[in-house]
Automatic annotation (TrEMBL):
Location of the Methyltransferase type domain: 186-288
Gene3D superfamilies: Vaccinia Virus protein VP39
CDD domains: AdoMet_MTases
Signal sequence extent: none
Keyword field: Cytoplasm, Methyltransferase, S-adenosyl-L-methionine, Transferase, tRNA processing
Record function comment: S-adenosyl-L-methionine-dependent methyltransferase.
Protein name, per record: tRNA N(3)-cytidine methyltransferase
InterPro entries recorded: Methyltransf_12 (IPR013217), METTL2/6/8-like (IPR026113), SAM-dependent_MTases_sf (IPR029063)
PANTHER family xrefs: METHYLTRANSFERASE-RELATED, TRNA N(3)-METHYLCYTIDINE METHYLTRANSFERASE METTL2A-RELATED
Entry similarity comment: Belongs to the methyltransferase superfamily. METL family.
Naturally occurring in which organism (per UniProt): Molossus molossus (Pallas' mastiff bat)
Amino acid sequence: MAGFCPEGAPAEAGGKRQQFGSRLLSDPMRVFHHNAWDNVEWSEEQAAAAERKVRENSTQRVYPEKQVDYEINAHKYWNDFYQIHENRFFKDRHWLFTEFPELAPSQNQNHLMDLLSESKQNELPECRNKEDGPDLITEEQHKYSSDGLEHKTQTLPVEENVTQKLSHLEICTDEFPGSLATYRILEVGCGVGNTVFPILQTNNDPRLFVYCCDFSSTAIQLVQTNSAYDSSRCFAFVHDLCDEDKPYPIPRDSLDIIILIFVLSAIVPDKMQKAINRLSRLLKPGGMMLLRDYGRHDMAQLRFKKGQCLSENFYVRGDGTRVYFFTQDELDTLFTTAGLEKVQNLVDRRLQVNRGKQLTMYRVWIQCKYRKPLLSNTGS
Ligand SMILES: C[S@@+](CC[C@H](N)C(=O)[O-])C[C@H]1O[C@@H](n2cnc3c(N)ncnc32)[C@H](O)[C@@H]1O
Protein backbone atom coordinates (compact mmCIF):
# COMPACT_ATOMS: atom_id res chain seq x y z
CA MET A 1 0.00 0.00 0.00
CA ALA A 2 1.01 3.61 -0.32
CA GLY A 3 1.94 3.55 3.34
CA PHE A 4 0.42 5.45 6.16
CA CYS A 5 1.56 6.60 9.50
CA PRO A 6 -0.58 5.71 12.50
CA GLU A 7 -0.82 7.94 15.48
CA GLY A 8 2.74 8.52 16.49
CA ALA A 9 4.24 5.42 14.95
CA PRO A 10 7.92 5.22 15.72
CA ALA A 11 10.35 5.53 12.87
CA GLU A 12 11.88 2.43 11.38
CA ALA A 13 15.60 2.10 10.81
CA GLY A 14 17.21 -0.77 8.97
CA GLY A 15 13.92 -2.67 9.14
CA LYS A 16 14.03 -2.58 12.97
CA ARG A 17 11.30 -0.86 14.84
CA GLN A 18 12.40 1.72 17.35
CA GLN A 19 10.66 3.11 20.36
CA PHE A 20 9.41 6.63 20.26
CA GLY A 21 12.08 9.24 20.51
CA SER A 22 14.88 7.88 18.40
CA ARG A 23 15.11 9.96 15.21
CA LEU A 24 16.36 13.41 16.06
CA LEU A 25 16.47 16.44 13.82
CA SER A 26 19.85 18.04 14.45
CA ASP A 27 20.09 19.93 11.17
CA PRO A 28 16.90 21.90 10.34
CA MET A 29 17.93 21.85 6.66
CA ARG A 30 17.22 18.12 6.66
CA VAL A 31 13.62 18.44 7.84
CA PHE A 32 12.15 17.13 4.58
CA HIS A 33 14.54 14.16 4.43
CA HIS A 34 12.24 11.98 6.56
CA ASN A 35 8.52 11.69 7.30
CA ALA A 36 8.85 12.23 11.03
CA TRP A 37 11.25 13.45 13.73
CA ASP A 38 11.17 12.63 17.41
CA ASN A 39 11.63 14.72 20.54
CA VAL A 40 11.39 17.96 18.65
CA GLU A 41 12.36 20.97 20.71
CA TRP A 42 9.91 23.85 20.47
CA SER A 43 11.42 27.31 20.25
CA GLU A 44 10.14 29.99 22.64
CA GLU A 45 8.44 31.74 19.72
CA GLN A 46 6.70 28.57 18.66
CA ALA A 47 5.45 27.91 22.18
CA ALA A 48 4.25 31.51 22.48
CA ALA A 49 2.49 31.29 19.11
CA ALA A 50 0.72 28.10 20.26
CA GLU A 51 -0.40 29.86 23.47
CA ARG A 52 -1.75 32.73 21.40
CA LYS A 53 -3.59 30.39 19.06
CA VAL A 54 -5.27 28.60 21.97
CA ARG A 55 -6.23 31.87 23.63
CA GLU A 56 -7.71 33.00 20.33
CA ASN A 57 -9.71 29.83 19.61
CA SER A 58 -10.99 29.67 23.20
CA THR A 59 -12.45 33.17 23.39
CA GLN A 60 -15.85 32.12 22.10
CA ARG A 61 -17.42 29.14 23.89
CA VAL A 62 -20.15 26.81 22.65
CA TYR A 63 -23.60 27.80 24.02
CA PRO A 64 -24.58 25.98 27.23
CA GLU A 65 -27.66 24.28 25.65
CA LYS A 66 -25.50 22.89 22.88
CA GLN A 67 -22.91 21.74 25.43
CA VAL A 68 -25.64 19.77 27.20
CA ASP A 69 -26.58 18.13 23.91
CA TYR A 70 -22.95 17.07 23.29
CA GLU A 71 -22.81 15.56 26.75
CA ILE A 72 -26.15 13.75 26.77
CA ASN A 73 -25.81 12.48 23.24
CA ALA A 74 -22.07 11.80 23.26
CA HIS A 75 -22.53 8.10 22.49
CA LYS A 76 -24.84 8.91 19.58
CA TYR A 77 -22.28 11.19 18.00
CA TRP A 78 -19.76 8.34 18.22
CA ASN A 79 -22.33 5.87 16.87
CA ASP A 80 -22.76 8.17 13.88
CA PHE A 81 -19.00 8.27 13.43
CA TYR A 82 -18.73 4.48 13.39
CA GLN A 83 -21.77 4.08 11.15
CA ILE A 84 -19.89 6.06 8.53
CA HIS A 85 -16.33 4.85 9.00
CA GLU A 86 -16.98 1.37 10.39
CA ASN A 87 -13.53 -0.13 10.90
CA ARG A 88 -11.74 1.48 8.00
CA PHE A 89 -9.17 3.53 9.81
CA PHE A 90 -5.97 3.24 11.78
CA LYS A 91 -5.55 -0.46 11.66
CA ASP A 92 -1.82 -0.19 11.85
CA ARG A 93 -0.92 -0.48 15.51
CA HIS A 94 2.53 -1.91 15.09
CA TRP A 95 3.85 0.52 17.73
CA LEU A 96 1.57 -1.00 20.35
CA PHE A 97 3.86 -3.73 21.64
CA THR A 98 7.03 -1.68 21.44
CA GLU A 99 5.50 1.00 23.62
CA PHE A 100 3.38 -1.31 25.77
CA PRO A 101 5.16 -4.68 26.07
CA GLU A 102 2.89 -5.30 29.09
CA LEU A 103 0.19 -6.28 26.60
CA ALA A 104 2.09 -9.40 25.62
CA PRO A 105 4.56 -10.00 28.44
CA SER A 106 5.29 -13.64 27.77
CA GLN A 107 5.85 -13.28 24.05
CA ASN A 108 9.26 -13.92 22.68
CA GLN A 109 10.55 -10.69 21.09
CA ASN A 110 11.53 -12.36 17.81
CA HIS A 111 8.12 -13.88 17.48
CA LEU A 112 6.64 -10.46 18.09
CA MET A 113 8.77 -8.90 15.40
CA ASP A 114 7.66 -11.56 12.92
CA LEU A 115 4.03 -10.90 13.69
CA LEU A 116 4.51 -7.20 13.47
CA SER A 117 6.23 -7.26 10.12
CA GLU A 118 3.51 -9.61 8.89
CA SER A 119 0.83 -7.18 9.97
CA LYS A 120 2.80 -4.36 8.34
CA GLN A 121 2.66 -6.20 5.02
CA ASN A 122 -1.08 -6.52 5.51
CA GLU A 123 -1.73 -2.84 6.04
CA LEU A 124 -4.97 -1.93 4.43
CA PRO A 125 -5.17 0.01 1.21
CA GLU A 126 -8.00 2.15 2.48
CA CYS A 127 -5.75 3.61 5.15
CA ARG A 128 -4.96 7.16 4.40
CA ASN A 129 -1.76 8.56 3.07
CA LYS A 130 0.99 8.69 5.65
CA GLU A 131 1.34 12.40 5.11
CA ASP A 132 -2.16 12.99 6.40
CA GLY A 133 -0.97 13.02 9.94
CA PRO A 134 -1.08 10.62 12.79
CA ASP A 135 -4.26 11.44 14.64
CA LEU A 136 -6.01 8.38 15.85
CA ILE A 137 -8.97 9.52 13.86
CA THR A 138 -8.09 12.44 11.70
CA GLU A 139 -9.95 15.67 12.04
CA GLU A 140 -10.86 15.30 8.39
CA GLN A 141 -12.57 11.98 9.05
CA HIS A 142 -14.51 13.57 11.87
CA LYS A 143 -15.57 16.33 9.49
CA TYR A 144 -16.96 13.91 6.94
CA SER A 145 -18.89 12.05 9.58
CA SER A 146 -20.89 15.14 10.53
CA ASP A 147 -22.78 15.34 7.25
CA GLY A 148 -26.39 14.28 6.90
CA LEU A 149 -26.75 12.35 10.11
CA GLU A 150 -29.78 11.86 12.26
CA HIS A 151 -29.45 10.30 15.65
CA LYS A 152 -31.08 6.97 16.04
CA THR A 153 -32.57 6.50 19.45
CA GLN A 154 -33.54 2.85 19.35
CA THR A 155 -31.41 0.39 21.27
CA LEU A 156 -29.55 -1.99 19.05
CA PRO A 157 -30.10 -5.69 19.71
CA VAL A 158 -26.46 -6.12 20.67
CA GLU A 159 -26.81 -3.51 23.38
CA GLU A 160 -29.87 -5.17 24.90
CA ASN A 161 -28.14 -8.47 24.77
CA VAL A 162 -25.05 -7.19 26.51
CA THR A 163 -27.08 -5.34 29.13
CA GLN A 164 -28.91 -8.54 29.98
CA LYS A 165 -25.62 -10.36 30.28
CA LEU A 166 -24.23 -7.61 32.49
CA SER A 167 -27.10 -7.62 34.98
CA HIS A 168 -26.75 -11.35 35.22
CA LEU A 169 -23.02 -11.00 35.83
CA GLU A 170 -23.50 -8.61 38.67
CA ILE A 171 -25.10 -11.43 40.58
CA CYS A 172 -22.67 -14.22 39.72
CA THR A 173 -19.34 -12.48 40.08
CA ASP A 174 -17.52 -15.76 40.56
CA GLU A 175 -18.57 -16.79 37.06
CA PHE A 176 -17.75 -13.67 35.15
CA PRO A 177 -16.36 -14.05 31.61
CA GLY A 178 -12.67 -14.77 31.83
CA SER A 179 -12.92 -15.85 35.47
CA LEU A 180 -10.56 -18.75 34.79
CA ALA A 181 -7.92 -16.58 33.13
CA THR A 182 -4.80 -15.53 34.97
CA TYR A 183 -3.85 -12.51 32.83
CA ARG A 184 -6.70 -10.09 32.18
CA ILE A 185 -6.60 -6.97 30.05
CA LEU A 186 -9.40 -4.41 29.72
CA GLU A 187 -9.45 -1.85 26.94
CA VAL A 188 -11.75 1.07 27.67
CA GLY A 189 -13.14 3.03 24.71
CA CYS A 190 -12.01 0.27 22.39
CA GLY A 191 -13.75 1.60 19.29
CA VAL A 192 -13.83 -1.11 16.65
CA GLY A 193 -11.05 -3.20 18.19
CA ASN A 194 -7.92 -1.79 16.58
CA THR A 195 -6.00 -2.55 19.76
CA VAL A 196 -7.91 -5.59 20.98
CA PHE A 197 -7.48 -7.70 17.86
CA PRO A 198 -3.70 -7.19 17.65
CA ILE A 199 -3.49 -8.20 21.33
CA LEU A 200 -5.48 -11.38 20.72
CA GLN A 201 -3.38 -12.15 17.67
CA THR A 202 -0.04 -11.44 19.32
CA ASN A 203 -0.46 -12.62 22.88
CA ASN A 204 -1.02 -16.37 22.62
CA ASP A 205 -0.89 -17.01 26.34
CA PRO A 206 -3.74 -19.51 26.90
CA ARG A 207 -4.40 -17.89 30.27
CA LEU A 208 -5.07 -14.48 28.68
CA PHE A 209 -8.55 -12.94 28.59
CA VAL A 210 -9.30 -9.57 27.00
CA TYR A 211 -12.27 -7.36 27.87
CA CYS A 212 -13.15 -4.34 25.83
CA CYS A 213 -15.87 -1.78 26.12
CA ASP A 214 -17.10 1.36 24.48
CA PHE A 215 -20.25 3.42 24.95
CA SER A 216 -20.88 3.26 21.22
CA SER A 217 -23.08 0.24 20.57
CA THR A 218 -22.23 0.55 16.88
CA ALA A 219 -18.53 0.14 17.66
CA ILE A 220 -19.16 -2.84 19.93
CA GLN A 221 -21.33 -4.49 17.32
CA LEU A 222 -18.46 -4.12 14.84
CA VAL A 223 -16.10 -5.75 17.34
CA GLN A 224 -18.48 -8.63 18.03
CA THR A 225 -19.12 -9.31 14.36
CA ASN A 226 -15.45 -9.17 13.39
CA SER A 227 -14.26 -12.58 12.20
CA ALA A 228 -11.34 -12.37 14.66
CA TYR A 229 -13.69 -12.02 17.65
CA ASP A 230 -13.40 -15.13 19.79
CA SER A 231 -15.75 -15.19 22.75
CA SER A 232 -13.64 -17.80 24.51
CA ARG A 233 -10.81 -15.25 24.76
CA CYS A 234 -12.59 -11.93 24.65
CA PHE A 235 -15.69 -10.14 25.95
CA ALA A 236 -16.85 -6.93 24.30
CA PHE A 237 -19.59 -4.93 26.01
CA VAL A 238 -21.30 -1.57 25.85
CA HIS A 239 -20.26 0.60 28.77
CA ASP A 240 -20.06 4.31 29.49
CA LEU A 241 -17.00 4.98 31.59
CA CYS A 242 -18.70 8.04 33.05
CA ASP A 243 -21.73 6.10 34.22
CA GLU A 244 -21.28 5.78 37.95
CA ASP A 245 -24.31 3.55 38.42
CA LYS A 246 -23.43 0.80 36.01
CA PRO A 247 -20.87 -1.67 37.31
CA TYR A 248 -18.21 -3.23 35.12
CA PRO A 249 -18.81 -6.95 34.59
CA ILE A 250 -15.50 -7.71 36.29
CA PRO A 251 -14.83 -7.92 40.03
CA ARG A 252 -12.49 -5.43 41.68
CA ASP A 253 -8.80 -6.32 42.00
CA SER A 254 -9.03 -8.64 39.00
CA LEU A 255 -7.29 -6.92 36.07
CA ASP A 256 -3.61 -6.97 35.20
CA ILE A 257 -3.83 -4.20 32.61
CA ILE A 258 -6.25 -1.44 31.71
CA ILE A 259 -5.50 0.39 28.48
CA LEU A 260 -6.90 3.74 27.39
CA ILE A 261 -5.95 4.90 23.91
CA PHE A 262 -7.20 8.36 22.98
CA VAL A 263 -10.33 7.83 25.05
CA LEU A 264 -9.93 9.81 28.26
CA SER A 265 -9.66 12.94 26.10
CA ALA A 266 -13.13 12.21 24.72
CA ILE A 267 -14.91 12.69 28.03
CA VAL A 268 -15.84 15.86 29.85
CA PRO A 269 -12.97 16.91 32.17
CA ASP A 270 -14.98 17.03 35.37
CA LYS A 271 -15.90 13.34 35.01
CA MET A 272 -12.36 12.12 34.42
CA GLN A 273 -11.29 11.64 38.02
CA LYS A 274 -14.23 9.48 39.01
CA ALA A 275 -13.85 7.39 35.87
CA ILE A 276 -10.17 6.73 36.65
CA ASN A 277 -10.94 6.01 40.31
CA ARG A 278 -13.47 3.38 39.31
CA LEU A 279 -11.09 1.77 36.85
CA SER A 280 -8.30 1.79 39.38
CA ARG A 281 -10.38 -0.38 41.73
CA LEU A 282 -10.59 -3.05 39.04
CA LEU A 283 -6.80 -3.43 38.89
CA LYS A 284 -5.06 -6.16 40.83
CA PRO A 285 -2.42 -4.90 43.22
CA GLY A 286 0.60 -4.55 40.92
CA GLY A 287 -1.68 -4.11 37.88
CA MET A 288 -1.04 -1.26 35.44
CA MET A 289 -3.04 1.44 33.73
CA LEU A 290 -1.63 2.36 30.29
CA LEU A 291 -2.59 5.50 28.42
CA ARG A 292 -1.74 7.28 25.22
CA ASP A 293 -3.59 10.52 24.47
CA TYR A 294 -3.46 14.06 23.12
CA GLY A 295 -1.03 16.52 24.69
CA ARG A 296 -1.46 20.26 25.16
CA HIS A 297 -0.83 22.28 21.99
CA ASP A 298 -0.97 19.31 19.68
CA MET A 299 -1.59 20.41 16.10
CA ALA A 300 -5.21 19.26 16.37
CA GLN A 301 -5.79 21.75 19.22
CA LEU A 302 -4.24 24.63 17.33
CA ARG A 303 -6.40 23.93 14.30
CA PHE A 304 -9.71 24.44 16.11
CA LYS A 305 -11.60 27.55 15.10
CA LYS A 306 -13.35 30.02 17.37
CA GLY A 307 -16.73 28.71 18.49
CA GLN A 308 -15.59 25.08 18.93
CA CYS A 309 -14.27 25.48 22.45
CA LEU A 310 -16.36 23.93 25.26
CA SER A 311 -14.10 24.78 28.18
CA GLU A 312 -10.37 25.29 28.67
CA ASN A 313 -8.49 22.92 26.33
CA PHE A 314 -11.71 21.00 25.57
CA TYR A 315 -13.25 21.26 22.10
CA VAL A 316 -16.00 19.81 19.94
CA ARG A 317 -15.32 18.68 16.40
CA GLY A 318 -17.66 19.27 13.49
CA ASP A 319 -19.20 15.82 13.98
CA GLY A 320 -20.09 16.39 17.66
CA THR A 321 -17.28 14.29 19.15
CA ARG A 322 -15.15 16.02 21.77
CA VAL A 323 -11.47 16.16 22.62
CA TYR A 324 -9.36 17.39 25.53
CA PHE A 325 -5.63 18.21 25.37
CA PHE A 326 -3.70 17.15 28.49
CA THR A 327 -0.57 18.23 30.27
CA GLN A 328 1.63 15.59 31.90
CA ASP A 329 0.85 17.06 35.32
CA GLU A 330 -2.90 16.79 34.84
CA LEU A 331 -2.59 13.11 34.00
CA ASP A 332 -0.23 12.55 36.89
CA THR A 333 -2.79 14.09 39.25
CA LEU A 334 -5.62 11.96 37.84
CA PHE A 335 -3.70 8.71 38.27
CA THR A 336 -2.04 9.42 41.61
CA THR A 337 -5.32 10.67 43.10
CA ALA A 338 -6.74 7.30 42.10
CA GLY A 339 -4.05 5.68 44.24
CA LEU A 340 -1.67 4.67 41.44
CA GLU A 341 2.10 5.08 41.26
CA LYS A 342 3.95 6.53 38.30
CA VAL A 343 5.99 4.16 36.18
CA GLN A 344 6.13 6.36 33.07
CA ASN A 345 4.73 9.76 32.10
CA LEU A 346 6.33 11.09 28.95
CA VAL A 347 5.55 13.63 26.33
CA ASP A 348 6.10 12.58 22.76
CA ARG A 349 6.69 15.65 20.60
CA ARG A 350 6.93 14.67 16.99
CA LEU A 351 7.34 16.61 13.83
CA GLN A 352 5.40 14.97 11.04
CA VAL A 353 6.40 16.02 7.59
CA ASN A 354 4.43 16.09 4.39
CA ARG A 355 7.29 15.91 1.97
CA GLY A 356 5.05 16.23 -1.08
CA LYS A 357 3.41 19.42 0.12
CA GLN A 358 6.47 20.57 2.13
CA LEU A 359 4.30 20.91 5.24
CA THR A 360 5.31 20.41 8.85
CA MET A 361 2.91 19.23 11.56
CA TYR A 362 3.84 19.39 15.22
CA ARG A 363 2.20 16.60 17.18
CA VAL A 364 2.12 16.25 20.95
CA TRP A 365 1.06 13.03 22.64
CA ILE A 366 1.38 11.87 26.21
CA GLN A 367 2.08 8.32 27.21
CA CYS A 368 1.59 7.08 30.76
CA LYS A 369 1.97 3.91 32.78
CA TYR A 370 0.74 3.90 36.37
CA ARG A 371 0.80 0.93 38.71
CA LYS A 372 -1.48 -0.03 41.57
CA PRO A 373 0.68 -0.51 44.63
CA LEU A 374 0.88 -3.98 46.11
CA LEU A 375 -0.53 -2.60 49.32
CA SER A 376 -3.27 -0.62 47.73
CA ASN A 377 -5.46 2.17 49.04
CA THR A 378 -7.87 2.92 46.18
CA GLY A 379 -11.02 3.22 48.29
CA SER A 380 -14.26 1.33 48.07
C1 LIG B 1 -10.68 8.56 19.57
S1 LIG B 1 -11.64 7.09 19.71
C2 LIG B 1 -10.45 5.88 20.13
C3 LIG B 1 -10.91 4.48 19.84
C4 LIG B 1 -9.96 3.36 20.24
N1 LIG B 1 -9.38 3.53 21.55
C5 LIG B 1 -8.87 3.18 19.23
O1 LIG B 1 -7.73 3.22 19.65
O2 LIG B 1 -9.13 2.96 18.04
C6 LIG B 1 -12.45 7.39 21.27
C7 LIG B 1 -13.35 6.25 21.66
O3 LIG B 1 -13.82 6.48 22.96
C8 LIG B 1 -15.18 6.11 23.03
N2 LIG B 1 -15.75 6.86 24.15
C9 LIG B 1 -15.88 8.20 24.28
N3 LIG B 1 -16.46 8.50 25.44
C10 LIG B 1 -16.71 7.32 26.08
C11 LIG B 1 -17.31 6.99 27.32
N4 LIG B 1 -17.79 7.93 28.13
N5 LIG B 1 -17.39 5.69 27.65
C12 LIG B 1 -16.91 4.73 26.83
N6 LIG B 1 -16.35 4.98 25.64
C13 LIG B 1 -16.25 6.28 25.26
C14 LIG B 1 -15.73 6.49 21.67
O4 LIG B 1 -16.92 5.82 21.35
C15 LIG B 1 -14.57 6.11 20.77
O5 LIG B 1 -14.69 4.77 20.36
